[in-house]
From TrEMBL:
Residues 1-51 form the GGDEF domain. Residues 60-315 form the EAL domain. Keywords: c-di-GMP. This is cyclic-guanylate-specific phosphodiesterase. Signal peptide: none annotated. Pfam families: EAL, GGDEF. Gene3D superfamilies: 3.30.70.270, EAL domain. It is an enzyme of class 3 (hydrolase). One of its GO terms (molecular function) is cyclic-guanylate-specific phosphodiesterase activity. It comes from Vibrio maritimus. Its EC number is 3.1.4.52. InterPro entries: Cyclic-di-GMP_PDE-like (IPR050706), EAL_dom (IPR001633), EAL_sf (IPR035919), GGDEF_dom (IPR000160), Nucleotide_cyclase (IPR029787), Rev_trsase/Diguanyl_cyclase (IPR043128).
Length: 324
């Protein structure tokens, strides 16, 4: 076409009469659903409709509809907190905030079930803003009782980085709630940086200049973890749970974690190991030189009241300087 060579591909969805529909309308609708699945599976392929596909499409549509409704009542979204623990002393160093959706009918919905949809539909923008405000509100409540190096991290989606002025937004809520930036850590994943590296670099620089720490989440799982470390300045990395899971049984995983910790030390980066589920894992990580850990072995993410109770208990056993 006008001397340009075009390569045309195709994704095919197949629905069969009478199993997948008795009317032309139903058949086309179901073939369409199968075609979208073919596209989602990397395009240039075909998929045959199954009732399971319809179920997942319906489920997704339900969640999307409920999400849209819930935006009028953002109180349904709350932050839960999971402690970050010093692997040497057992002291709680901080927490990661993780969103939960307390739906009036569905109950507590985990983020995996709605964050991807919120991201696709841009509903993550109002939701993310609400969570940033809640984070600052919460830190304000806790501030008087914090140890000086206590911090709370928040997960940020790519849409938030590219479509909102995050720097201004954080500044606004930090001022509103009198929260010092050093108490906040922003967790981002590599996939987030892929879209527009220049813009990401600019924003992250500004965020760090404002005093908020930036951490690379799920470290080691992406395609280009190292080149990101070269390009973007971050304060720390979180070693992905997939490496921690088999650290006792798989010597290769153990060596990889060891290498990541050594590399981080050389680059003056802090390290958190995620997904610690057993004492053995915690001990091994401590031996390797990883200082901070997070995982079910210490605590699951919990609602704010439980987290405060936990901190009070710890302070009573003199592990941390926290009193209410
Ligand atoms: P993530 O940021 O990698 O968060 C860690 C996830 O691992 C959390 O799942 C946490 O509950 C879980 N986890 C912690 N310790 C263990 C363990 O020992 N074993 C196992 N198997 N899992 C453990 P959760 O809370 O379901 O969150 C899932 C993902 O949803 C998060 O992964 C993050 O990507 C996203 N997410 C959560 N909260 C937010 C948020 O406020 N904003 C955005 N944009 N994304 C969020
Ligand atoms: Ca995270
Ligand atoms: Ca992670």
């Amino acid at each position: 076409m006008e001397n340009e060579e075009l390569v045309v591909g195709g994704s095919i969805g197949i629905a069969r009469y009478p199993h997948n529909g008795k009317t032309a309308e139903d058949l086309i609708k179901n073939a369409d659903i199968a075609m979208y699945r073919a596209k989602a599976d990397g395009k240039n392929t075909h998929k045959v409709f199954t009732p399971k596909m319809l179920k997942s499409v319906t489920h997704r549509a339900n969640i999307e509809r409920e999400l849209r409704r819930s935006l009028a009542d953002l109180q349904q979204f709350e932050l839960w907190f999971q402690p970050l623990v010093c692997l040497k002393t057992g002291r709680i160093m901080g927490a990661e905030s993780l969103v939960r959706w307390r739906h009036p009918v569905l109950g507590v919905v985990p983020p995996a079930d709605f964050i991807p949809i919120a991201e696709e539909t841009a509903m993550i923008l109002p939701l993310g803003q609400w969570l940033i405000e809640r984070l600052c509100f919460q830190i304000q409540q806790w501030m008087p009782y914090f140890a000086h190096d206590f911090h709370v991290s928040i997960n940020i989606s790519s849409k938030q980085l590219y479509r909102q002025n995050l720097v201004e937004m954080f500044a606004f809520y930090m001022e509103k709630y009198h929260v010092p930036p050093r108490t906040i850590r922003m967790e981002i994943t590599e996939s987030l940086l892929l879209q527009d590296e220049d813009e990401a670099e600019r924003t992250l620089k500004e965020i760090r200049a404002s005093g908020i720490e930036v951490w690379l989440d799920d470290f080691g799982t992406g395609y280009s973890s190292l080149s990101y470390l070269r390009r973007f300045t971050v304060d720390g990395i979180k070693i992905d749970q997939s490496f921690v899971r088999d650290i006792i049984t798989d010597s290769k995983d153990q060596q990889l974690v060891q290498a990541m910790v050594a590399m981080a030390n050389n680059l003056d980066l802090l390290v958190v190991a995620e997904g610690i589920e057993t004492e053995d894992q915690a001990n091994t990580l401590a031996q390797i030189g990883c200082e901070i850990g997070q995982g079910y072995y210490f605590d699951k993410p919990m609602p704010v009241d439980d987290f405060v109770k936990k901190l009070i208990n710890e302070s009573e056993s003199n592990v941390i300087e926290f009193k209410l």
